[in-house]
Here is the input.
Amino acid sequence: MQSNHGTKDEHLPAGQGTVDWKKVCHALQYLDVSFILESRSIEEGRASLGYIAGD
Here is the structure.
């Protein structure tokens, strides 16, 4: 699963694009799953983690 604007393979940071990450994370908390967060840079990775964590 990746965040994009629905037209190309963008892999945007969480909070950008069309994925509702708050809903995704809420749903995942009830499952015994792991996921990988990919980013284009360390800064974007940190921004995504902060967004998902609610910072």
User: Anything to note?
Assistant: The mean pLDDT is 82. The radius of gyration is 11 Å. The chain has one domain: 1-55. Residues 1-55 form one domain.
